[in-house]
Design a protein that fits this description.
Distance between the termini: 33 Å
Number of strands: 0
Helix content: 40-55%
């Protein structure tokens, strides 16, 4: 089942976990034990997306923060 909206108000926590997993799977592999983003300087994926999964920040906000910090997750 595809979610039409990725906004927090339109999704459950389980939906948001799936959205993040599907989005990260675009590199061609599973994220389990990968650490690829951290190796590229992006930081821990789990920690980075946690505010979205927990319903605290929208994906758009996290992506804007990522870009404004030149790719470094704080």
């Amino acid at each position: 089942m595809k979610t039409k909206s990725i906004l927090i108000k339109d999704t459950t926590k389980e939906d948001r976990i799936r959205i993040v997993q599907e989005g990260l799977n675009q590199c061609g592999g599973a994220c389990d034990f990968c650490n690829g983003c951290d190796n590229l300087g992006g930081g821990s994926v789990d920690a980075f997306y946690e505010p979205y999964i927990n319903g605290e920040k929208e994906l758009r906000e996290l992506n804007e923060e990522y870009r404004s910090n030149t790719g470094l997750v704080k």
